[in-house]
Amino acid sequence: MSDPVLSLDTFTYQDYKTWPEDFRCELIDGVVCMMASPLLWHQQMVLKLGTQLAEFFEGKPCQPFIAPVDVRLFPQDDESDDDVVQPDLIVVCDEKKLADGKACKGAPDLVIEVLSSSTRHYDLVTKLEKYRKAGVREYWIIGNDAVRVIVFDPYQVREWDLKKSREVKSVIFPALVLRF
Fold first, then answer.
1. What is the pLDDT of residues 38-92, one digit of tens each?
2. All domains of the chain, ordered by start, with CATH?
3. Cβ within 8 Å of residue 163, ≥6 positions away
4. Would you call 131 exposed, middle or buried from its count of C-beta atoms within 10 A (0-12, 13-18, 19+)?
5. Of 52, 102, 141, 148, which one has the fewest beta carbons inside 10 Å?
6. DSSP structure string for 99-117
């Protein structure tokens, strides 16, 4: 399945922020990628994990967020950047990235995407490469029966079969264990 592209015109964050809030999309290289409403399973998973992240990071300097939160992967002062994504869950440890109160300006430390059939290729290929280039430290990709945890520096991939274990441990936050 190909990425969910709206048109071949290109746009910037400056254009993006003028669009209605209910217009669900992301920008990849300036191209609008539409986002359909997720399935109930997807939303249940995001809620469950978001709750655990909120509890774990309570009182700690890192802050978790659930979608929709705009992440400007390569922010420019003039807002000409053309990569704006809304990961399902993020954790940001550098408070300067959140200073404007509107978006995360730069790579989150942890990004979690819950796969949908319509976004599988997009999350596994397109966004993975953007996250790597932007400097995301750890990227989780969650499917119905497995979780893939990717650390970009040094590069490593860990996989959990959720039929065998319902707990997945973070690499960059060693005390963080999420229960599925």
1. 999 999 999 999 999 999 999 999 999 999 999 999 999 999 999 999 999 999 9
2. 37-179 (3.90.1570.10)
3. 145
4. buried
5. 102
6. TTSSSEES--SEEEEE--T
